[in-house]
Amino acid sequence: MARRPIIAGNWKMNMTPSEAEGLIKALIPLVADAACDVVICPPFVDLPLAVTLTQGTNIAIGAQNVHWAEKGAFTGEISATMLKSLGVQYAIVGHSERRQYFGETDETVNKRACAALQAGITPIICVGESLAQREAGETENIVSNQTEAALAGIGAEEVKTLVIAYEPIWAIGTGKTATKEQANETIGCIRATIEHMFCRDTAQAVRIQYGGSMNPGNAAALMAMPEIDGGLIGGASLKAEDFAKVVKY
Description:
Blueprint: E1 6-10, H1 17-30, E2 37-41, H2 47-54, E3 59-63, H3 80-86, E4 90-93, H4 96-101, H5 106-118, E5 122-127, H6 131-135, H7 139-150, H8 156-159, E6 163-166, H9 180-197, H10 200-205, E7 207-210, H11 219-223, E8 230-233, H12 240-247
Helix pairs in contact: 1-2, 1-12, 7-9
């Protein structure tokens, strides 16, 4: 089954609206003829502007998080309904930084993913192991357990539409990158977990990105691997030329 590649840029806590405007305007012509789906995920304050600027282009907008409740006493959170009303199409869920610094759990990742799907937003669900877990030989167990927890209660047809990002925590923001063979093997494990939970057709339909320091220098080699369907890009997404090179790997 041919899966359309998807390259998503996670800006993290970077870019004021004026800075975002400059980056988006520079990026639009550089990726206009991309042969993959292109997504950028700015901070919440940039989302309205980003949606407006990218209307009529091939760039989709994603949020960096989404809450599971539609509304209520959840100070600082943003609901899927609010994001959908802006025109947001994707939402990152369970990024390792959310898990590490803000108490995200497998249960809340699942609740956020379900809320996104219910609102018609595609979740980009992040899974991945720490360096200590990899060195202890626990990588497959960790990513399999995280995948099972994240997809609990979601139907096969919905699972086919979502995106999973394998992001080895030890390769995020460190400049370290899993070898293309390591990334491909672990993503294959994630796909096998989905096949075990659902069926082969579902597993073969799900797009699984690599999210550990993909950049213009290694994108082509990583994307040549059969299990890797795209990238969740951090630092390289903050420069239009670098992100465009990854998009056009």
